[in-house]
Amino acid sequence: MSLRTPAETVRRQITTILRSWGMPENLIETTAEVMVETDLMGVDSHGISMLMQYEQKYLQGRLDLAAQPKILNETPVTALVDAGANLGHPVSVYAMNLAVDKALAMGLGLVTVRNSHHFGAAGYYARIAAKRGAIAIVTSTARGIIVVPTRSAKPVLGTNPIAIAAPAKRNRPFVLDMATSTVAAGKLKVYGFQNKPLPEGWVTDGKGGSVRDGTEAYEMFYGGQSSGYGGLTPVGGTPELSSHKGYGLGMVAQILAGALTGASFSPRDRPNEGPKDPENIGHFFLAIDPKTFRAEGEFETELDGIIDLLHGTEPADPAKPILVAGEPEDAERARRLADGIPIPGALAKHIRDVCGRTGVDYILEGS
C-alpha cells in the first residue's frame, strides 16, 4: 500500500537528509528540486528512492558533497566541468544551463562533465533547455555493469540514458527520456517495493530465460548475489526484436559521455578502484538555438504542426489518444501535485531507516 505525500513534504525530507550529510544549502536546493520533480513526473526509480544508494556512497566516503562544479577548460561554445565527486544533480543543472547560455550566444553549446555520480533522470536537464527555448541532447554513462549486449551472456554496459527535448509554441515541449536498456534498473526496485512481477524480457538470466521477480533481479545487480551472468536487456529485448539498436545507443552514450569526457568505463576501471574512490561518471549536454537555422518562432511553429498532426491521428483504441514524448510525465506531474507522491510501504520503511541512521526526523507520514 502506498502513502500519498505532498511534494513539499518529500522535498523537506530529502533536504533534511542531505543537510545532515553536510551538503551546502545551494546544492541541497538544486538536488532536492531535481529529485522531487523526478518523482512528480512519475519516474519513481530516480527520485527519493535513490536516497538509500546515496547514503551507501556517502558512508563509503565516495562522495564529496561539498564540492562545487569547476570548469576545467572552456571555449565560446564548449566546456569541460569537474563535478568534484559530488552527486550529479547540481553539476548537471549548472552544465545544462551553461550549454544553453553558449547556444543562445553562439548557436550551439556543448558542455561535458566528468568525476560525477548518479544524476537522476536525464529528461529533467533536457527540459531546462526546452524551457529556455533551446533543443537539448543529454546523455550519461552509468555506474552499473548490468546491460547484456546483443549475443552476450554477461553484462558489460550500464543503462546509459539518452534524453532529447525541443520547445514548441502552443504545445508542451517534446521530451524523450529513455534508458538504452529495455527498462531502467531502478524500476526493478520499484516493482520489488510494489510486489509486482517483472514483464517478460526485461531481465535475462544469461541462458535465454527471463527473471520475473523484481527484488531478485535488483539483488542480482546491487545485493552481491550476482553469478556474473544475465542482466538487463538492451532496448529491443532480443536479437529478433532488434536489440542491437538499444545496444548501439548504449554505446553512443558511452562514447559521448564517457570516452569524450575522460569518465570511467565501469567493466574496465571498477576492478582497479579503491574502496573510497569516486565513481567518475560522465555526462554530456548539447544545446542548439533553433534561431541559428530558422527565423525566430519558425521551428516552434513547425513542431506544433507535427505534434498537432500526431494528436489528430486516429488511435487504435479510442480511449487511448495519441501522445508524444513528455506528455505522460506532464499529466502525471499534475496528478501528483494534486494528490501527492506515492510512497510504497517498503520504500517508506527504507527512508525511515535512513532517517534513523542519519539522526533526522522522518516526516513523510501524517502529512
Structural write-up:
With 367 residues, the protein is an alpha+beta fold. The protein folds into two domains: 1-60 and 337-367, Orthogonal Bundle (Hypothetical Oxidoreductase Yiak, Chain: A, domain 1), CATH 1.10.1530.10; 67-182 and 233-325, Malate/L-lactate/L-sulpholactate dehydrogenase, NADPH binding domain (Ribosomal Protein S8, Chain: A, domain 1), CATH 3.30.1370. Helix content is 41%, strand content 15%. It contains twelve helices and eleven strands. The chain has helices spanning 7-20, 25-40, 51-60, 88-106, 122-131, 185-194, 214-222, 243-259, 266-269, 298-311, 327-339, 345-358; strands spanning 2-5, 70-74, 78-82, 108-116, 135-140, 162-166, 174-178, 203-204, 231-232, 281-288, 341-344. α2 (25-40) packs across α4 (88-106) and α6 (185-194) packs across α7. It is globular.
Brief summary of the model shown:
The protein has 367 residues and is of the alpha+beta class. It has twelve helices and eleven strands.
| CATH topology (fold) name of the largest domain | Ribosomal Protein S8, Chain: A, domain 1
Give the uncertain stretches in residue-range form. none
Q: Which range does the strand content fall in?
A: 5-15%
What is the fourth-level CATH superfamily of the largest domain? Malate/L-lactate/L-sulpholactate dehydrogenase, NADPH binding domain
Number of DSSP strands?
Answer: 11
Provide the residue-averaged pLDDT. Answer: 93
Biggest sheet: strands, sense, closure? 7 strands, mixed
